[in-house]
Every structure is written in C-alpha cells, then in structure tokens.
Design goal:
Number of strands: 4
Structural class: alpha+beta
Number of helices: 4
Strand content: 25-35%
Helix content: 40-55%
Number of domains: 2
Shape: elongated
Amino acid sequence: MLRAVVLAIGVAIAAPAQPQDEPEAVYAKFHRAGLAADYDAMLKYGTAAKARERKEFLQVLARLLPRHYSVVEKIVEEGGTRALLRLRGAPEAVSGAITLVKEKGEWKVDEANWGER
C-alpha cells in the first residue's frame, strides 16, 4: 500500500504541468460567459481589479437609491401582465418609474428608473 502511494506521488511530480490557455481561448470563454449572462463565469475569467470595480459600482448604486419611497400611482395594464409604479423618494425629492412584468405568475422588475424632479 505504501509503495502504491509513493509511486502515485512520483508520477504526479514527474507529470508535466498542464499548459495554460492562450489569451484568445481565455477571451473566448469570457465572451461566451457574457453571452450567457453568466456573471460568475465572467468573474472567473476577468481580473480581480475589474471585479472590485463592479462591486464598487453596485455600492455606488446602493447609495444613490432613495432610502424610503411611497407609491404615487399604480397602473396595471389590461390583462394584468405589465404594471407601472410611479414612486416618490424620501427624504430626497426624487421620482421613480418602475416597470414590472409577470413571469410564471410572479411580478418581476423589468426596469427601474430614478431621476430628480
């Protein structure tokens, strides 16, 4: 048994290292991940610095959204598959227009637009 373990370790050490992907292959994987909207795979093939930038962007966005809001108007289109919410942010005086659509019987946010008024 010990001889088999030693032999296996020796083979592993003697085996050549796997070649790294060429830049073209790495970008091809990144591109495919982008087309598939696979953010986790994009992170795998993207730089750590860019991942930090993306995280920072999300943190900035979180600071820009109003902390509180009230629904000023709700419009559900005939058929009940699309809705528009008009919102008023507080304490900042910002207005929002949020479009929702029904997917598999559940409301999902399609667009969220906030702007000063």
